[in-house]
From TrEMBL:
TM annotation in the entry: none
InterPro entries: Class_I_gatase-like (IPR029062), CobQ_GATase1 (IPR033949), GATase_3 (IPR011698), Lipid_II_synth_GatD (IPR043702)
Pfam families: GATase_3
UniProt cross-references to CDD domains, sorted A to Z: GATase1_CobQ
Descriptive protein name: Lipid II isoglutaminyl synthase (glutamine-hydrolyzing) subunit GatD
A GO term for molecular function: glutaminase activity
Keyword Hydrolase recorded: yes
Pathway participation: Cell wall biogenesis; peptidoglycan biosynthesis
Classification of source organism: Bacteria, Bacillati, Bacillota, Bacilli, Lactobacillales
Biological process annotations from GO: cell wall organization; cobalamin biosynthetic process; peptidoglycan biosynthetic process; regulation of cell shape
Amino acid sequence: MTNTIRICHLYGNLLNTYGDNGNLLMIQYYAREKGYQVETTMVSLEDPFNADDFDIIFFGGGQDFEQKIIAKDCQRLIPEIKRYIEQNGVLLAICGGFQLLGQYYTTADGEQIKGLGVLPHYTERQINSRFIGDIEIYDEINQQTYYGFENHNGVTYLTDALEPLGKVITGYGNNNQDKTEGMHYKNTFGSYFHGPLLVRNEWLARHLVDLAIEQKNK
Ligand code: GLN
């Protein structure tokens, strides 16, 4: 399987709104361009999951109803996802998936649901309001500008342990207060960007595939 990039689409049948599946298409496209075959596996409610079976995990965005269902099921994945992240596995989490990697997520109606808790960020809510609109951020580590569209009720705080994916130039970002957008820790990336993120930001798509290839061949 060394010439195959194995992609895990985490809860892909539940978190599949906002065209985020375009991120998967981009990963598949660049992996093939690099000469790899691609195998995509959906891991959803009650499915077995072994982190060693994957080179990239994609965790998409969705609505509160689905997030509540997933929050219950995903607790069983905590040790494997934690191990995967800590050993530099490549993971991309968008919006709802990004929120669920953290400590907790507060739904628009005020219910606090437990996240996987594998990273320290946490998400509060806004009352009768959403952050909606075009967004532009600058990734200082990689010196790249990213463009996207955000649509979220959640208000996320990173804590000092996490780097943002980028600094907000225009738009709201994680919380409309500290100019952070998304998150970056080892080879794990989180973002509120739809658009989808990787379709509008080709450099990042290639970067994730390169990281996955590097991890695979180390
Ligand atoms: N339901 C979450 C929120 O509104 C996530 C939305 C999304 O994934 N776009 O914050």
